Amino acid sequence: MPSKRFDSLEAHVTRPLTPRPVPARPAARPACALLAAGLLATACSPSSDEGDASVLTSLDYNIAEPQNSATGQMLKACAEQAGVTVEREELPREQLMPRLLQGASQQDLPDLMLIDNPDLPQVAASGALVPLEEAGVSTDGFYPSVLEAGTHDDTLYGIATGVNGLALFYDTAKLEDAGVEPPETWDDLRSAAEELTSGDTNGLAFSAIGHEEGTWTFEPFFWSNGAELTQVDSPEAVEALQLWSDLVEDGSVSQSAVNWTQADVKDQFVGGRAAMMVNGSWQLPVLAEEDVEYGVVPLPVPEAGTEPAPPMGGEVWAVARNGEEREAKAVEVLQCLVEDGNMTEWAELNAYVPGKEELARQLAEDDPGMAPFVESVPSARSRTAELGADYPEVSSALADAIQSVLAGDAEPEEALSQAQESVPAS
């Protein structure tokens, strides 16, 4: 079907498919001891009762269409290829990790699970997941950065069919009318956002909401300036947050950004109330349905020549330690899920970048609107590479710091100094 123009480039548009029923959850297995933080004190051993290895279980949070039906169809096809049946359960996103952490404590994990990559270390730290390379899963052709997002303590526990990231979207008409070029550096961004701010239109919009979504949006600015999550109050970190503070203070970005999700940011852009926005590749099929002409470029960096450093987004498939026979069959299903054809189909459905470099290059050629996202994958960062299972606490503290600064309650140095208290001692 026709789509709106990305400077004469096309975006993928998808149609909902038919939903499928939710199967019953298998019975629980015996429990093992937990740490106070909710992780296992020692690695759990697999249950001695492996059950029927011809019937596997899976868990994910793809409850929206078309991802729901597509996940079910891919699992079914891969299960048939492996000679098994997969009983799939879907949960709302906020319920998935509590279920998995409880399951890890009780040796009651599904055979296959699809986990948001920054949550993987919390499950992997329990010892309840299968090391994938030891199980024979090939990583040939994958971006190293994609593999890093599924790695905990130097061991690969999760593998992605596709990944997403952030870029700068701009309203082509607004920039042309103002005689402004898409910004490439922070100085360009400051001047462009100020020039494009007029009346009810802000030059730029981004999400600074007080949880991971806000932190995720800030991290490309934080990392590209040389800051690290082990030292969130460094001069480089302060400079990055000062940039955001200045953009809000001079009116280039609405202070309401502290309440905006990325979906809200998209609404500001589509409604003509923002000339540019920081947002993700998943917005491409959404924007293709809207009456707006736009372009997409990599996020501006501190200085020309600096590589963008967006956080690596997307989910990873992992396999539970449920006994050798079940593990072997689950690995077969996983290997099918990351075959080239399935990887390309999933990427096109979600406006994701395939995890394999050659497939990603082909996607950028076929759909140039994805090119800025493909371009950023080699330098994309795993959010948990530095902190592992401690990342969520530091992310929350960083989100609080962003909120207090943009609300005018604290200076960047003060707010980030407080956030540093959440960083575990090395």
From TrEMBL:
<dbReference type="InterPro" id="IPR006059">
    <property type="entry name" value="SBP"/>
</dbReference>
<feature type="compositionally biased region" description="Basic and acidic residues">
    <location>
        <begin position="1"/>
        <end position="13"/>
    </location>
</feature>
<protein>
    <submittedName>
        <fullName>ABC transporter substrate-binding protein</fullName>
    </submittedName>
</protein>
<keyword id="KW-0813">Transport</keyword>
<comment type="similarity">
    <text>Belongs to the bacterial solute-binding protein 1 family.</text>
</comment>
<keyword id="KW-0732">Signal</keyword>
<feature type="region of interest" description="Disordered">
    <location>
        <begin position="1"/>
        <end position="25"/>
    </location>
</feature>
<dbReference type="Pfam" id="PF13416">
    <property type="entry name" value="SBP_bac_8"/>
</dbReference>
